[in-house]
């Protein structure tokens, strides 16, 4: 039987992994921006945003998670990536 500290330590490790994956995902902004420039696609691509949100919601349903909450998380990830692309293109105001 686990102690609360052990469980919290395990959650902390998972949280750290999530942060690393967010960093990796946002790090893809340069590649995405480059490809969008080559293909003449705007930084904010609402149709692709919908594809990402729907894919996340479908995966959430398969895992019996709250699809609406997962879509909110992915909305934040999409915004972070769009902001990073604006920054990289010289249009943003992020550090």
In short:
By secondary structure, the chain is mainly α. The chain is built from 4 helices and no strands.
Written description of the protein model:
The chain is built from four helices and no strands. The chain is mainly alpha-helical. The longest helix has 24 residues, at 4-27. The chain starts with a helix and ends in a 7-residue tail after the last helix.
Order of helices and strands: HHHH
**Count of separate DSSP helical elements:** 4
First-last Cα distance:
45 Å
The radius of gyration is: 17 Å
**Which structural class is indicated by helix and strand composition?**
mainly alpha
Mean pLDDT: 95
Query: How would you describe the shape?
Result: flat
**Proportion of residues in helical segments:** over 70%
Strand content: under 5%
Largest sheet: none
Q: Would you count the extended β strands for me?
A: 0
Low-confidence stretches: none
């Amino acid at each position: 039987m686990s102690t609360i500290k052990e469980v919290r330590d395990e959650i902390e490790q998972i949280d750290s992994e999530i942060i690393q994956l967010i960093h990796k995902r946002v790090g893809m902004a340069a590649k995405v921006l480059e490809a969008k420039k080559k293909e003449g696609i705007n930084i904010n691509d609402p149709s692709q945003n919908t594809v990402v949100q729907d894919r996340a919601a479908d995966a959430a349903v398969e895992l019996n998670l709250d699809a609406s909450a997962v879509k909110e998380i992915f909305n934040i990830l999409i915004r972070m990536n769009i902001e990073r692309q604006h920054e990289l293109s010289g249009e943003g105001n992020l550090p």
